[in-house]
Amino acid sequence: xxxxxxxxEYLRYSRHLLIPDVGLEGQRKLKExxxxxxxxxxxxxxxxxxxxAAGIGHIGLVDCDVVDLSNLQRQxxxxxxxxxxxxxxxxxxxxxxxxxxxxVDVYDEPFTSINARQVAQNYTIIVDCSDNFPTRYLTNDxxxxxxxxxxxxxxxxxxxxxxxxxxRRGPCYRCLFPEPPPxxxxxxxxxxxxxxxxxxxxxxxxxxxxxxxxxxxxxxLIGRLLLYNALDMSFESITLRKNxxxxxxxxxxxxxxxxxxxxxxGAPASDLEAGAAVNWEISALELSQRLRTTKSIKLIDVREPxxxxxxxxxxxxxxxxxQLPSRLSELDExxxxxxxxxxxxxxxxxxxxxxxxxxxxxxxxxxxxNAWVKAIDPKFPMY
Amino acid sequence: xxxxRIPSPIRSYTGGLSEVMVQGCTVAEAMQDLVRQYPSxxxxxxxxxxxxxxxxxxxxxxxxxxxxxGLDTPLEEADYLLLIPSIAGGxxx
Lengths: 383, 93
Hints:
The complex is a heterodimer. Chain A is α/β, with parallel strands linked by helices.
């Protein structure tokens, strides 16, 4: 039996109660609903805010990060006075302020194959607001194996994608993307940037789909991928079909249990073993000392040209990561090389490219130019 | 010539171009022409055996070419081919 509404809830949700497709029964369905939001960042902010405002009775939030100043350009659930606070704590406070009638359970832990089933067991809909491929594949497999809809959203710079992957009624994420792109090709928002408004657009579309699922109204985005481009202000919808050979949702699946995807997705540990990676790093302090004692270190900045306006290391040569494979002939294998980017992520892939090309005297600046600015040259800003 | 739409995550490999005119009578030929024009894309889009990687999705008229004739899908002069990438971003958790 659906839960009753309190007197104050009738008033709070009056604009829903006026819509015939929602009405009192629909609002009671929303109150009964339980939705898990994976990620309390750019997408998770609008998703969880609108789900709470709409009166979704049980909301779960998974995130193990803390609020950072650089989050606030897009993660509107958090505030300046929450910098340094756990995102789940910050988000829960905001959601309960917006709507104290809903329950918000938080999971301040990494979402892994170990805990995913347990975390998700009390929720009927999963909203994927994550920011990395391992979590996306894990979320997909979890939804397929437990028979739950996966309300998917992803963003990059000015582009967004939305779909509802429900293997019971259509394709799953793996039907479309059987494997992730090779490491280094598709950058994360942390490396490549994202328009702050973009997760607002995509997140509200995800929240809309989640609410439609609960109400059982309209045409869900099952079997369709919605593509949004903010620059063109265009929406395109493409048709998706179930892959008869899908490794997880076909009639003969290879994946029948949750697995972790760090290696599958080419996370750093796959190419350079975690322990050995340290030997390929150099700290800002050590680099500074070595530059003072020897002039023969070749510094390669693998950022994009427009980033030079923010910060630079004197004497560095700019070779954007995307151009590195075709410009290896400009480098000398016998020379000591240090690669760097903003935080060390893109240059990590540059290091991998150089190592595979036979360069052995190459190191990655740990923490990137931000670490350099912090420790050595504070006249530039960190970004 | 058919036009191939380049998604923003890999536009740095096409000099920032969002659309590339490609030669070819089939999807396979069009993709070969793309990496001939922009060789640094090749290792990302093709595996070491020379096959297109599984994450590469190509759509013609809103349909996945895998549901048509795959890489053998014929292309007309005015066709518009969409390359759909997998993106992971969520505005950072």
